[in-house]
Amino acid sequence: MARILVTGAAGFIGAAVTKRLCARGDSVLGLDSLNDYYQVSLKEDRVADIRSVAPERFTFKKVDFSDQHALTAALAGEEFTRIVHLGAQAGVRYSLENPRAYVDANLTGQVNMLEIARERAVGHMVYASSSSVYGGRATYPSSVDDRVDHPVSLYAATKRADELMSETYAHLFRLPLTGLRFFTVYGPWGRPDMALWLFASAIFEDRPIRIYGEGEMYRDFTYIDDIVTGVLASLDSAPSDDGMAKPGGSMGPHAIYNIGNNLSEHLMKVIDLVEQACGKAAIREYHPIQPGEVRRTAANIEAIQNDLGYEPTVRIEQGIPAFVDWYREYSGV
């Protein structure tokens, strides 16, 4: 089988993708800077988890892919045929506090990875975009053919820039590229800065949960297993350089897909399900919507359904208890 380069391999989605690739027989060269945006121990535990199930198929290197010289040195002598570029600086709210981290990781880092893909003539690079590119749209669900010219956070702006830079490389160098707009990913091994982790930890520790937008928020929650299925389906189906329009509008070998659950869930329903799974009620604090946030996300997934046969299978009624069960075991509550 193939050897795949995965960036962000110690991250939530990157680790899950790496495990699935190894499980199906591929080998993975994983890169991650292990930065301290959230606790490094969780990232190290994800890497250890991969090594425990695929010791012969997984190689890990600590490297910051936004550092061109470090990246080049780390990849010297390494062979790989495709790239899954999931490493990024994530988080909408943090982009208000530390904008330069997003410029480094999401702009410089994307160019570095595009250059690696071009120089190595890889068969395909899949990269992470975000549903945040849609901004505060008034029409739902969001389609990859919608205009996305009005981001409401720097994070969203950098992700849209990633798509535009990728379009340039597809046009100039005929490099096969696929961008994936993820919608609110959750599940075991998730990120501590995301809503479900924040809610569960607060409930178990008898702290108030902060509910933004007075609770009138809707998100297209997508379970991690469904996300991984979409990533691998995309990786295995490089866009053709056939002069035909691709999802997202490119006439080159560049496709953009939404990966969501095709359901926009009310935040209050989500909180109710977390409470049920935790076995105790939350102390609820209501706050105004935060700068850079949007009221609603909803994915139109027709393009990825039609092209790749993607069908999400996990509803929040199953996925939220699965996350809470994992959280109990991992945190020891």
- Tell me the distance between the termini: 40 Å
| CATH fold topology of one domain | Rossmann fold
- Portion in strands: 15-25%
Helix content: 40-55%
Shape: globular
Placed side by side, the strands forming the largest sheet appear as 3-2-1-4-5-6-11
For the residues shown, what is the average pLDDT? 95
Radius of gyration of CA atoms, rounded to a whole number: 19 Å
Query: Uncertain segments of ≥5 residues (pLDDT<50)?
Result: none
Provide a count of the helices.
Answer: 11
- Based on helices, strands and strand pairing, what is the structural class? alpha/beta
Q: Write down the secondary-structure element order.
A: EHEHEHEHHEHEEHEEEHEEHEHH
Per CATH, which architecture of one domain?
A: 3-Layer(aba) Sandwich
Fourth-level CATH superfamily of one domain: NAD(P)-binding Rossmann-like Domain
* Biggest sheet overview: 7 strands, parallel
Q: Please report the first level of CATH classification, the CATH class of one domain.
A: Alpha Beta
Kindly state the number of beta strands: 13
Structure description:
With 333 residues, the protein is α/β, with parallel strands linked by helices. 41% of the residues lie in helices and 17% in strands. The chain has helices spanning 12-23, 40-53, 68-75, 94-97, 99-120, 154-173, 195-204, 224-235, 267-278, 302-308, 316-331, and strands at residues 3-7, 27-32, 58-62, 82-85, 124-130, 177-182, 185-186, 208-212, 218-219, 222-223, 254-259, 265-266, 283-287. The model has no long low-confidence stretch (mean pLDDT 95).
